[in-house]
Structures are given as structure tokens and as C-alpha cells.
What we know:
By secondary structure, this protein is an all-alpha fold. Helix content is 45%, strand content 2%. The protein has helices spanning 19-23, 91-111, 131-135, 140-146, 170-176, 187-194, 198-220, 222-237, 272-288, 290-308, 310-333; strands spanning 68-70, 73-75, 81-82.
Amino acid sequence: MKIRVGTPLRMASVALVTVTALAGCSGMGSEMPKARSKQAALKNISGPEPSIPPLPAVADDPSKPLDFQAGGAVIRPDGSLILPLDAYDSTNAQDVLARATTVLAQQCMRGKGLELPAALMEQAASKPPPPSVIYGVLNMDDARAYGYRMPPAPANSPVPPGADSSEITEAVTQAYFDDRKQNKPGCRSEAQKQLDAENVLNDNVYLQDLRSEARTAAHRDSRVTAVTAKWSACMKAAGFDYPDPTAPAHDRSLLGKGLPTPAGAALPPTSPAEVAVAVADVTCKRQTQYLETVALVTAAYQQEIIEKQAQRLQQGQDHWKQQVQNANKVLEGAH
Length: 335
């Protein structure tokens, strides 16, 4: 059975197209570079490909959750992936900053006779997308249950305030957001200015840029291109023709294949055909040790970046410590 790779889809149920916006990193497209391009030299990475530890023996049962730790990379049974640059994340600090920004923005809005709608209140820091968004379906249980759709959020996950668009009136928009034509800052920018948040916001962008650079280097690495080719050959042997693990979730002819699209839905529900490809996908990933290889190579490049940017990364952490102090003073004053 041959399946044609279609146009990438722009829809939340697939989610792969959100990688750049959420994590500042680019997914592996259908055109896989064969070698590192001299024309696209990376800032922090040069020289020979870094060494990685040897891979363990291939697991006999691909349905068992992957539990892997080596070379600075950790793959947990729940599908989460930990890499060296994660040590410089500031998720908790960003949560404090978000709350303090909301307090100050609310004060600013009330000074203009308005209320800050729940839909515009700063939320907890956006977390990097799960590995499945970047590398495709990874868990056999998820493959069998959801195919290439994102599993539902856990029942105990925090629920953000409801976004009622009717609350965001023209007056609210003009007060809260910047007026770039008149160079007039809105309440959100004023709140960030009071918190002196520019440095930490730049630090967060910088960290995401470093992650992106490591992913780009790993994308070009000969070991990743080789294991991607092995995965593709494995899938072809199973009857599915895809160049890399991101391709099936973008295949318009596969998602919900054979089922009608419900009224108001973007896609048909998960179909048996989609599940069959997802199961083969996970099986091939485990047989070729695709994720382990990509994780080890990416971790090696991240370590290389950390060694070269240790001072800048430490500076970012120092900025966040000061930012938390500033934000906590605002929160204490609001009680």
C-alpha cells in the first residue's frame, strides 16, 4: 500500500506546524539535508560531529514505554524528553512574572476606567511542545488510540481563564496593546517596563535560539540523516512511503482516511488506516532507535553550545533571579 505525502496541514489537532512559534525550533521537513551546509554556518557549532555514547540493544517489545538515559539526554516513559539546555529554563520564574504583569496591567487598565478581561490576563509560561510534536508519534498506546492526533490534556491540568472575545472591546484593545503608529505603549508594555522585564524576555528568546541551533545541527548530522533513512526504509517495508517521521502527520490523504468529516470539524476522526500507519511508525522508531539517536545527537550539540555560551547563559539566570524579586514585590503589594 502506497500513501502519498500531502500538503502540511494548519490545524491544532496535528500541531506540528506550531513548533517554531512555541519553541523557536524548526521541525524536520520532508527534505532532509545530507550534510552540514557551509552556506548556512551555525554560530556556536563548528568542527567535527560530536561523539555520542553507544546505543543499547534494541528492545524486543516496541509497545513498552521507552526509558532511556545517556549522554545528557533523558527519555522518560511518559514520552517527555530532557536535554542539557533545559537546565536553563525559567518556567517557574516566568509564572511569577506573568502574575505580576497581570497585576500591574490591571492597575493600568483601571486607571483608564476599564477592567482587564480574563482573556488578556498573562498565563503561565508557554512550555516547549512535547517531543511528539517535533518527532512524530512516539508512544504505542497513543498511536493505537489517537493515530496522529494530540492526546487530550490530563484531567488534572490547570484550566486557563475562559477567553470571551466579547470582553475585548475596541476600547480595551486600544488601552492594553501598543499603538505602534503613534508610538504609544499599552498597559501590557507599561507593566513589563515597570518590572524591567526586557532583559529576561530577551534571555528567553536567546535560549530558544540556542535550542533551534542545536536542532538544526542535529538535523544535518550524518547519524540523524542515517537513522531517518532507516526509519523510512522500515516504513516502506511495512507498505507506507514517507521520507521522515514528521511526514505522516502532514499527510492530508491519511488523517481520518475513509471516514466523513463531522460538521464544523477540521478533520475526520481517527480512522483504522491512520492508526495502522501510526503503529508502524512507532514500531519503526523503536526498531531503528530513531528517538534515542536524535536525542543523543541533539544533546551533544547542546553541550557544545553550553560550553561556548556558559557566561551568557549564567547571565540569563542572574537576570531571572532579579526579575523574580521585582515580581514578588509587586505581588506582595497587591495583597
